[in-house]
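Standup notes, structure subgroup. Blocker cleared on the 2-acetamido-2-deoxy-beta-D-glucopyranose input:
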Amino acid sequence: MIFSVLLLCAGLVSGVSAACSRNLLEEATAAYLRAQIAGQPSILLFTNNVTYVENDAPMDIKSGVLSQPVVVDFNRSLYDTTDCVTYTEVVAATNSHPYVISTRLTLVGEKVTKIESVVSDDGDWIFDAAKWLSWTKQEKWDPIPEADQDSRAVIKAAGDAYLDNWGNFSVPVPYGTPCARLEGGIYTGDKNASANTCRMGEFPEKFTVTNRRYVIDEVVGGLGMFNDFPFLDKAKPKGTPSTNLFRVEKGMIRYINENTVCTERMCGR
Ligand SMILES: *[C@@H]1O[C@H](CO)[C@@H](O)[C@H](O)[C@H]1NC(C)=O
Ligand SMILES: *[C@@H]1O[C@H](CO)[C@@H](O)[C@H](O)[C@H]1NC(C)=O
Ligand SMILES: *[C@@H]1O[C@H](CO)[C@@H](O)[C@H](O)[C@H]1NC(C)=O
Ligand SMILES: *[C@@H]1O[C@H](CO)[C@@H](O)[C@H](O)[C@H]1NC(C)=O
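Run returned:
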């Protein structure tokens, strides 16, 4: 008994018994990108009863964006080997219909069982795919040396604090210096790249950001968080589909890329 517990611990430390290998998740993500470029979901290996959800609405994969060929100008992915999930930011700025797509894949064994995407386009929150593309390309997401990598708990806590602060302005948020936020086509770091420009002003009302779904990748200090953002969209008081992609370095937030959809143009604001 003690022996097997020791073995299990050793496995966890070395990553051997991680739920999913990084390689498997990388392959699934590469297949997802090929599927999106071709507009052929079947390129992605998924179960017969795969759940396909776009902007919080379950739908037939055949009527989703994954069934349209899309020109992919840029992609960035996180691989969560503990929870067997991935996060991919897809920027399609030169596509005839520009998009920014955030996708979370859930795997069981070698197959994808769930595909969730937040798909933004013209009229969504400050949407500008060309500007998003130019800013996201400038961000540095190099692998973090192993000795400097944060734990999953630290990475998750940084992103949670950012969203919790919207409901309680006293919650401290570990913003780094520099820190920059990409929000649709706006980049807070455009004037001074070495400053912390992520700090949010206090919202006129307090609200709780719910339905948080996480993808955590210690190698790049990455946290992809799907969530429902209340207050912003007048037609969706309980929250509009949104994703925040965080890069965390030594416990401090370096980048936030926010992709948010709106029911009506600019969420009616
Ligand atoms: C996705 O991003 C990786 C890393 O930057 C790059 O090597 C690859 O070519 C990209 N794939 C597509 C389909 O654009
Ligand atoms: C549907 O998918 C789940 C995993 O998400 C699996 O456990 C279940 O057996 C599947 N059901 C069928 C009918 O294939
Ligand atoms: C707000 O956050 C502060 C700091 O974390 C905490 O002490 C306080 O209890 C919170 N207030 C509410 C109403 O949750
Ligand atoms: C930019 O930000 C850094 C760090 O906060 C600060 O030291 C510097 O003075 C700022 N530069 C300008 C031009 O404001």
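Discussed briefly. Helices lie at 2-14, 22-38, 129-138, 152-164.
Next: hand off to the docking folks.
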